[in-house]
Design goal:
This protein has 440 residues and is of the alpha+beta class. It is 17% helix and 25% strand. The protein contains 10 helices and 26 strands. It has helices at residues 59-64, 73-78, 85-90, 92-106, 144-154, 249-255, 305-310, 324-328, 348-356, 384-387; strands spanning 34-39, 47-52, 55-58, 120-122, 126-129, 137-140, 170-172, 178-180, 185-186, 189-192, 201-204, 208-209, 212-218, 237-244, 247-248, 269-271, 276-277, 285-286, 312-313, 316-322, 334-340, 367-369, 395-396, 402-403, 411-418, 426-436. The chain is globular and about 70 Å long.
């Protein structure tokens, strides 16, 4: 199902950066994701980098010393910016040029001179920042398993509302509270209404949850009033990341009617700091998830042969949890769930096309989220609301603790990995955050 494979995907090639070849490393030579960093403990201007093993290739410095060869001026300037937005605006062709140039430099059999030591920064010495200035953020509800599981808890006679199989459901989130992996998450306050009557009160949430999602970075945008055809959707998608849409379930239950999520979700969203480009993901493209017999086919504006044939991504996602007690005892994080992103009811291309179908103008650096990724079995459920059945079936931890929802001190870790026979596995990196007590 892949059509853009080239030497950057060759499994026989390794890198002279030793850590890139270590088993389980998320960033081998075949990945080369983009991000923004600064050297830890310095006040230096943020810089664009490319992950290779446990190092970061500083693109600005590599370009300055000529290590990446001659680049056209627009790419040259974009790669030396302090955010990815100028590069996102240039789209996938520019990303491909940088990927090829970095691959030629970093491959083990390169004939190019190795760059000065200053061009490679060990990851422990780097502070990883948000990759882009995010103008707008929209979150979808693209997993039918998640939608059905949640719907059955609140509407057992009608888990899915009639529109779900026709229209990608989404809402506009809050860009200002998106934070990079590793940022602590403060337990939020919210209005809680207990029982069936009585006045609500402002309290710390008692039902803090995570949601395991995949985020898509918008590359070139579209003018206001001009939709994006589904056949062209992927030219506007630059790459993917992991995303944790932290949620206060008790606040959400009280406030969501009739307009949907608000304070229950806008207090924090964590993303992994690396943008894995669509070119890196080429070997892991799969057909869009087939619809069950009897389900309606997408309306024509949401359907095209290319999206049907290769609209999915074979990404295995997992959620791990480490309580404060587990960390103190040296106990490894416990995996709570695992799910495949290939089974989503709506593809990323469909989400983008639907978002722009009314003429909404998407811009470079906008972020689209898939919604919670869940699957058909209990071990595939991507949030505690589903996994514990609204808290009625607590999860047991190795220390004897149980969890209905998150407690203070809990660390949630999301990971995503792509594997396919004949190709080197690549990862999306970690998306993690520790819950801090509320400020009251």
């Amino acid at each position: 199902m892949s059509r853009n494979l080239d030497e950057t995907h060759d499994a026989a090639l390794g890198s002279w950066v030793t850590s890139a070849g270590r088993p389980g490393n998320a960033f081998p030579l075949q990945n080369l994701p983009l991000g923004v960093f600064r050297r830890r403990g310095t006040g230096e201007r943020p810089r664009i980098g490319m992950a290779i093993g446990e190092e970061i290739l500083d693109l600005g410095r590599a370009i300055a010393v000529g290590a990446l060869g001659s680049l056209e001026s627009a790419i040259h300037d974009a790669a030396q910016a302090s955010v990815l937005n100028p590069l996102l605006a240039l789209g996938r062709p520019a990303a491909r040029v940088l990927r090829l140039a970095a691959h030629a430099l970093l491959r083990g059999d390169t004939k190019l001179p190795r760059p000065p030591e200053e061009c490679l920064v060990p990851m422990p010495q780097a502070e990883l920042l948000l990759p882009a200035a995010i103008g707008d953020y929209s979150d979808f509800y693209a997993s039918i398993h998640h939608a059905t599981n949640v719907g059955s808890m609140f509407r057992p006679d009608q888990p899915l509302l009639p529109n779900y199989k026709w229209v990608p459901i989404g809402y506009h989130g809050r860009a200002s509270s998106i934070v990079p992996s590793g940022t602590p998450i403060r337990r939020p306050l919210g209005q809680l209404q207990e029982g069936s009557a009585g006045a609500p009160s402002l309290q710390p949430t008692r039902a803090l949850d995570y949601e395991c999602e995949v985020g898509a970075w918008v590359g070139p945008g579209n003018p206001l009033g001009v939709p994006v055809p589904i056949a062209a959707a992927e030219e506007h998608l630059f790459g993917l990341c992991l995303l944790n849409d932290w949620s206060s379930r008790d606040v959400q239950r009280w406030e969501y009617q009739p307009l949907g999520p608000f304070l229950a979700k806008n207090f924090a969203t964590t993303i992994s700091p690396w943008v894995v480009t669509l070119d890196a993901l080429e070997p892991f493209r799969v057909p869009r998830s087939a619809r069950p017999a009897g389900d309606p086919q997408p309306l024509p504006y949401l359907d095209a042969p290319g999206d049907r044939e290769r609209g999915g991504f074979a990404i295995e996602l997992e959620v791990l949890l480490a309580s404060e007690q587990m960390r103190a005892a040296g106990v490894a994080p416990q995996r709570l769930s695992r799910a495949g992103f290939a089974g989503m009811y709506w593809s990323m291309g469909q989400l983008l096309t639907h978002h722009a179908s009314n003429g909404c103008n998407l811009r470079p650096g906008d972020l689209l989220a898939s919604g919670t990724v869940s699957g058909p079995y209990k071990e595939n459920r991507g949030c505690l609301l589903e996994l514990t059945s609204r808290g009625s079936e607590p999860v047991a931890l190795p220390t004897g603790e149980t969890r209905r929802f998150l407690e203070d001190g809990d660390e949630v870790i999301l990971r995503g990995t792509c594997t396919r026979a004949g190709y080197v596995a690549i990862g999306l990196g970690d998306c993690r955050g520790v819950v801090l007590p509320a400020v009251v």
